[in-house]
Amino acid sequence: MIENFEKYWFIVLVLAFKINVLGFFFYTESLETAYLMEFAAKDKIAKLESKQHLYEGVLNGVLILDGAAVLLLIYYGIRKSMK
């Protein structure tokens, strides 16, 4: 796995950046949806709540992937320093 990371580190870096941009987009949309829920009519609240849950799920997934990437980089750094 580390050999693949050494080969394709730039692709991994670009994908991590795109995932973070996607997370930022869903974060801003989540804030906008929360703001709209304050002024929405009762019939539209259910639709906005389902949208809010979708955005929160995607945002949580992005945070988990970011945490995994940080742990991978720490592991890779420790392994490199041990050699």
Could you name the ranges where pLDDT drops below 50 across 5 or more consecutive residues?
Answer: none
Compressed to H and E, one letter per element, the order equals: HHH
Shape descriptor: rod-shaped
- The chain-level mean pLDDT equals 82
Largest sheet: none
Number of strands: 0
Report how far apart the termini are. Answer: 17 Å
What proportion strand? under 5%
Structural class: mainly alpha
A few lines on this structure:
Helix content is about 95%, strand content about 0%.
Description:
The two termini are 17 Å apart. It contains three helices and no strands. Helix 2 (9-39) runs antiparallel to helix 3 (42-82). Helix content is 94%, strand content 0%. It is rod-shaped, with a radius of gyration of 18 Å. It has 83 residues and is mostly helical.
Helix-strand layout with pairing:
Layout: H1 2-7, H2 9-39, H3 42-82
Helix pairs in contact: 2-3
Jot down its keywords.
rod-shaped, 83 residues, 3 helices, 94% helix
